[in-house]
Design a protein that fits this description.
251 residues; 70% helix; 9 helices; mainly alpha; 0% strand
Length: 251
């Protein structure tokens, strides 16, 4: 099993290399297929031996072979996180079709989170197809089932739509579609837990930003990464969180 998990990690890291292409090109509305990978500074095409996930970054010491300009550590981190995410999914949820779809969700959330951090946008080209794929997968494969997926999609998106209307732009359309996508994969219970967890994590980070860096209350913090973290925590730990909550002595 150790070799199996190592293989899954490598597959995740390889896909993570492609995710970096998506992160770089989708906000610029460029093709993710062509041209081939190249240095954004000197435009030299990257040889296959310089494009090995994780290893090439370490061997090149984070610099382009041709112009010696530093390569963002984001490339290394995305490959590591995606590889680790796939491994944890396989470990906790097993080697099955469910895990394959959850791996797709994980990679989508990773790309969305990084793009949202950089550009404060959530690409429709990921969330809208993601909602469709999530609903189809839930109808035939995933344990949430089609009813849970539909309710999760509508309730998650509906709650955020109301928040967007009431706050007059405080919640973006990208966030609405993102929580709907999470609901389509994970279902009703998970989407509610995702909203609770992401709101809590976002509040903690917001308070920390105000205290540590003096950011004002109106400083805009992208919410996509918090939704993604909340969704992943819900996927892995929903049962334990619910059992812990129900076991609390509230009186």
């Amino acid at each position: 099993m150790l070799l199996t998990y190592l293989f899954i990690f490598i597959i995740g890291a390889v896909i993570g290399s492609f995710l970096n292409v998506c992160i770089h090109r989708l906000p610029a509305e460029q093709s993710i297929v062509t041209p081939a990978s190249h240095c954004p500074h000197c435009n030299k095409y990257i040889k296959f031996y310089d494009n090995i996930p994780i290893l090439s970054f370490l061997l090149l010491r984070g610099r382009c072979r041709y112009c010696s300009v530093s390569i963002s550590v984001q490339y290394l981190l995305v490959e590591l996180i995606n590889g680790a995410g796939y491994t944890v999914i396989a470990w906790k949820l097993g080697l099955n079709t469910d895990s394959a779809f959850y791996a797709l969700l994980f990679s989508s959330l990773l790309v969305i989170s990084v793009i949202d951090l950089y550009h404060q946008i959530i690409p429709d080209v990921i969330t809208i197809p993601g909602i469709i794929i999530g609903l189809i997968a839930s109808a035939f494969i995933l344990p949430s089932g089609i009813k849970g997926a539909i309710f999760g999609t509508l309730l998650g998106g509906g709650i955020f739509f109301v928040i967007a209307v009431v706050s007059r732009g405080g919640m973006g359309g990208g966030d609405i579609k993102l929580i709907a996508m999470i609901g389509s994969f994970l279902g009703l219970t998970d989407v509610l837990l995702t909203i609770i967890l992401s709101s809590f994590i976002g509040s903690v980070v917001g308070v920390f930003m105000m205290i540590a860096f003096g950011k004002g209350r109106k400083y805009k913090i992208p919410f996509g990464p918090f939704l993604s973290i909340g969704g992943i925590i819900s996927l892995f730990f929903k049962t334990k969180i619910i059992e812990w909550y129900l076991g609390m002595d509230l009186w």
